[in-house]
Amino acid sequence: MDIMKIKAAVLNQMGAATPYAQSKPLGIEEVDLDDPGHGEALVRIGAAGLCHSDLSVIDGNRPRPTPMVLGHEAAGIVEKLGPGVDDLKVGDHVVMVFVPSCGHCLPCAEGRPALCEPGAASNGAGTLLSGERRLHRNGAQVHHHLGVSAFAEYATVSRRSLVKIDKELPLDEAALFGCAVLTGVGAVINTAKVSAGSSVAVIGLGGVGLSSLLGAVAVGARRIVAVDLSDDKLGLARQLGATDTFNPGNPNAIDDIRSATAGGVEFAFEMAGSVRAMDLAYKITRRGGTTVTAGLPPPDHTFALPQVNLVAEERTVKGSYIGTCVPIRDLPRYIELYRGGKLPVDRLMSGRLKLDEINLGFDRLQEGKAVRQVVVF
Fold it and tell me: What is the pTM assigned to this prediction?
């Protein structure tokens, strides 16, 4: 088996102090990458987005085994195929999906690949779907991040982590579809099944939250309330189709939103990954309404709600992971909506970085100063 030397952003331990531009939690190092094994492919990374899910591994809120090459939202070009992969060709453009779906477990059989059980187990262990690790450094194994590890020049991944896309879509734009768009748009369309004419609120306007807002516009929501602590992001939300914007730093925000929406919205989406944001989302959901969360707070944070009002008001609280998507079905659809002008995902791009600027990029993300930054190779 051939081994390549590649440049990659390696997280050696979690919990570094901020600013990251100084503490440099991600070291740009040379690591060894194995050829693809059975059912795997070698992909040359074109672009990889910086996401809060990466940040929560860096700061230790989502514990993962280290050392690990981070990065899970990416697009690239197939360079080499392992045995048993006969439905991709060298040169194909692909988007990476951060939960590989085995196709055989019960959730996969039920059409819920986001909940693939072997996929979740391998992601937690820092391996590919096969259980193997294809990354090494000085003879020791390096873990994979969510089966992808895209903050690197190349990645060896399971075929089950890849969706083939049209070559005409630029790779830096394509990368956003792998996490932000699948998660945000999917939460609106698949998880909540928002219908035209509904009222919607989105709390937390990062890449995922603004993707939800775009999804709500695309399905024809009549009222779209955007909520964030950043007035700059609220301004962008208005440009993207929000009808109302509120800053939750205002102590009367909940009352103001309920008053403006005649008792609350039919669908509220918590996309900030905090219990405070979830509490706000629940309180601005109207009677009979649905509160959806795709935020990932630390595992020990709990959300309390009055059970009597869950019952007496017939409320629904739902979780959404990768937007309840079937990636092979939804990715091409969302790309087509984008190319038809109905899902302007390119407006979420805050900037392009080189790999060695990645720690600075995570400072900007942590400070709420960026929506989606993309490392371009």
Answer: 0.96
